[in-house]
Amino acid sequence: MSNVVEINALHKCYGARKVLENVSLSLESGTIVGLLGPNGCGKTSMIKIIAGIIQDYEGQVLIDGRVPDEYTKSIVSYLPEKTYLGDNLRAKDALNFFEDFYSDFDKEKAKSMLSQFKLDPNQKIKSMSKGMQEKVQLILVMSRKAKVYLLDEPLGGLDPASRKAMLDIILNNYSEDAVVLLSTHLINDVERIFDRVIMVGEKRILVDDTVDNIREKNGKSVQELFEEVFKC
Amino acid sequence: MANDFSSNVPIYIQIMNEVKLKIVSGVWEAGQRLQSVRELAVEFSVNPNTMQKALSELEREGLLYTERTSGRYVSQDEEKIKKARDEMAEEYTGNYYNLMKKLGYKKEEIIYVVSNRLADIEKGGLKNE
C-alpha cells in the first residue's frame, strides 16, 4: 500500500475566515476512510482541494505525487454534495456523458450496476426519487477506474434501505489500488465500512486513527467518540 | 445480514464471531468453499480489510483453511468445529448467567426459570417469542 494522497501543513481561508489551519494527513491505497465533522468544519473544502477545484490554498497537496492538475483530475473521481447532472438527462445519457468525459469510465460496469440496483436506464433523472438519483450518481462515480474516490456526503437525506444500497455500491467496487474518502455525519450506519476515520473540527484534525484502534483504546464506538469530541 | 456491533469490541472480532456462528451451526458446511473476501464484505456490510483480518484469524484458529490456488474453505475437522461450538455455548451460557446474577437470581432459580421457559417454548411449537 502506498500513500496516494499526501497533505502537509494545509491552510485555507475564505477572505478573513480561516476554515483549515495546518492540516496534515495521508491516505493509503486500499483503504476506505471516513471524513467526519460537524457542518462547516472544512470537510468539503478539503475534498474540493484534493479534487483540484479549489486552487488557492497554502501548503502542500500531492495526489499520486503530483500537485493537483489535469493529471490528478484524471485519477480522482469526485461525487459532489450537490447534483450536477442536467434535469433532462436519462440515466443512459448520463452514462454516455461520463464515457465521453472520462477515459477510465467502465460503461458496462455502470450498466450492470444500474440493473443490479433496479434502476431504469431510460428513466429521466429528474423523475427519479432522491434515493435513486443519489444511486445513479454514485454508480457513475464508482464506475471510473480511479485511484482516489471523493464522496462528499453521499448518504445525507436517504432512507436506511437506500443508504445500505449506497454502501453496497462502495463495497462492491473496493479496489486495492484506490482510496475512498467519504464524508458523512451519519456515523453509526457506516462505521463498519471504514478502515480509518479522520475527525475534523475547529479547522484542525482532532482524531486520525483506525476504527479498531479507536474501539480498543477508548472502549468506544466511533459514534460515541464523535459525540464526545464534538460535544456542544 | 444485520450485525449488532457493540461499541468497545473491535469490529474484526465481532465479524469472527458472526462467521464462527455460521460454521458451528452448519450454515456453512465443513469443507465448503467460501465466497471471495469482497463478496463476504458486502454480505456482512463491512470493510474488506476487516473481513480479511477476521478470516485470517479464523484460519489461525483452524476453522478455515486456504488452498493456495483454489481459495478458502471451511475446515473439515469435525472435532475442531464441535469444540468451537462448545466454546460458544459456554460463552453464551456465561453471559446469560451474569445477566441473571445481576437480576439477583440464584442458581436454583435460574435452573427453574430456564426449564419452565423451555417447556413453554416447546409447547408453543418451538417458537422462541
What's the gist of this structure?
Chain B: InterPro entries: Tscrpt_reg_HTH_GntR (IPR000524), WH-like_DNA-bd_sf (IPR036388), WH_DNA-bd_sf (IPR036390). Chain B: This is GntR family transcriptional regulator. Chain A is an alpha/beta fold and 232 residues long.
Explain what this protein looks like in three dimensions:
The complex is a heterodimer of chains A (232) and B (129). By secondary structure, chain A is α/β, with parallel strands linked by helices. Helix content of chain A is 35%, strand content 27%. Chain A has a single domain, classed as P-loop containing nucleotide triphosphate hydrolases (Rossmann fold, 3-Layer(aba) Sandwich), CATH 3.40.50.300. In chain A, helix 5 runs parallel beside helix 6. Chain A is globular, with a radius of gyration of 17 Å. The N and C termini of chain A lie far apart (38 Å). A two-stranded antiparallel ribbon of chain B has the order 1-2. In chain B, helix 1 packs across helix 3, helix 1 packs across helix 4 and helix 2 crosses helix 3. In chain B, a hairpin with a 3-residue loop joins strand 1 and strand 2. Chain B has 129 residues and is mainly alpha-helical. Chain B has 5 helices and 2 strands, in the order αααββαα. At the A-B interface, helix 6 and helix 8 of A face helix 2 and helix 3 of B.
